[in-house]
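Quick one, tokens below. Sequence please?
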């Protein structure tokens, strides 16, 4: 794809920072397409006959990163399906949530699919994220919303995913939003920062 036809904004932030929550609002107001890498992996995990189901399950529970071939393919398929379904009249804008979480994924996606416009980064401390995730865990049914998995997810985020944010920061491609306040306030800041970037 060419960046003339397809715009991709990556949405990053620690586990429970509020990526999904903010993306849902952006979809309503801006007409973006929202693709969550985690949601796509969970769907693939539950798809009958998937050869990757068991593998995905164990990576998610351990809070580690699924091999990128799987995730990049799922994202590319979902983008293709969205373009085929609605045609490509006008420019397609995708919010890719929770991806890339590792430098090799970032490089592979930008080389083989399309370069990103920038990364929306939700900055949130671990204490706040932990409280949100434990709270969601009471009803989410997510296999990784328990204290043990949460700690592992934090560790992977710091060691493996932050280097992606740091690299994009050096290229002046990070739009940083503080994510500790209420969802309404975070959204307000998100909109203001997007405006500064001409979106
Ligand atoms: N909430 C949200 N915003 C709030 C606010 N401002 N104030 C108070 N509460 C707020 O929010 C989490 C909870 O907090 C919700 O209950 C919400 O109501 C509340 P949410 O919007 O869901 O946060 P989000 O950042 O989306 O958290 P999520 O748990 O989805 O983040 P993760 O990044 O951990 O999960 P993801 O689904 O992206 O990935 C899961 C796993 O998949 C990874 O650990 C990894 O194993 C695997 N994965 C890969 O291997 N590769 C990938 O590329 C992607 C994922
Ligand atoms: Mg999410």
């Amino acid at each position: 794809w060419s960046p003339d036809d397809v715009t991709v904004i990556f949405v990053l932030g620690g586990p429970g920072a509020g990526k999904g929550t903010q993306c849902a609002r952006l979809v309503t107001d801006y007409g973006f397409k929202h693709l969550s890498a985690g949601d796509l992996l969970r769907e693939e995990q539950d798809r009958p006959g998937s050869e990757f189901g068991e593998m995905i399950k164990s990576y998610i529970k351990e809070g580690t990163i699924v091999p990128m071939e799987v995730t990049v393919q799922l994202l590319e398929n979902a983008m293709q399906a969205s373009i085929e379904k609605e045609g490509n009249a006008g420019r397609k804008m995708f919010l890719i949530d929770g991806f890339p979480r590792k430098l090799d994924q970032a490089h592979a996606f930008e080389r083989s699919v399309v370069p990103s416009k920038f990364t929306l980064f939700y900055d949130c401390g671990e204490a706040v994220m932990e409280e949100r995730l434990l709270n969601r865990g009471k009803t989410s049914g997510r296999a990784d919303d328990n204290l043990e998995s949460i700690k592992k997810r934090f560790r992977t985020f710091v060691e493996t995913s932050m280097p992606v944010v740091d690299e994009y920061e050096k290229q002046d491609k990070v739009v940083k939003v503080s994510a500790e306040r209420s969802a309404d306030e975070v959204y307000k800041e998100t909109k203001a920062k997007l405006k500064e970037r001409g979106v």
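Residues 189 and 195 are 10 Å apart (CA to CA). Residues 6-183 form a domain with the Rossmann fold fold (CATH 3.40.50.300).
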